[in-house]
Amino acid sequence: MELNKENQDIEEYLKKNDEIIKALQDENYTLMEKQYDLFLKKLKELDPFIQYIKSKGIYFSHPEIDLLTVRGPIIGYDDNEYYVYSLEEGKVKVITKYSLNDKEDMSIYTFISNYDFEKIMLSLEHIKQIPKLYADQLKRTVEQRKKWVEQFS
Q1: Which of 21-48 are b and which e, b meaning 16 or more Cβ less than 10 Å from the residue's Cβ?
Q2: Number of domains in the chain
Q3: What pTM was computed for the model?
Q4: I need a labelling partner for 25 at 20 to 30 A (CA). Which of 67, 82, 128, 132 fits?
């Protein structure tokens, strides 16, 4: 009789746990959908910056790593890979650091579900800084060239 009671308690415990898991999975899915929408909204907001950068031939950069690319905004990285949002394809390009070959593309949704969303959004925010960073870099280059011209004239 005790064994039957124990089995019933286990079944009840697992059923309650299953309900909790289901509710959390539903909430997680809903939040991922909201993050996806926020990502697309931010891209739309940044479109004038992105189009300016592309039209001027300026490279996209990232505030934490030394990588420049014309492919699109750098939206993340880890020890072995960079993640670049391809404007033309609407997908995330996975670029392996020590290889000339790219890995298979990733959907935005898959990327968002597997990567730190805060880092993604901060990476996008960096796009606003790129035109000024480029102008500052160009100013330093011009000043150095003036110095050389004066020095060797």
Answers
A1: eeeeeeeeeeeeeebbeebeeebeebee
A2: 1
A3: 0.83
A4: 82
pLDDT in tens, 15-55: 999 999 999 999 999 999 999 999 999 999 999 999 999 99
151 part of a folded domain: no
In a domain, 87, yes or no: yes
* Residue 73: closest CA among 129, 34, 137: 129
In a domain, 83, yes or no: yes
Token couple for 30: 């809903």
3-state helix, strand, coil in the chain (%, to 5): 65, 15, 20
On the 0-12 / 13-18 / 19+ scale of CB atoms within 10 A, 66 is exposed
Provide the residue range defining the domain that includes 68.
2-145
Inside any domain, residue 100: yes
Distance CA 8, CA 23 (A): 23
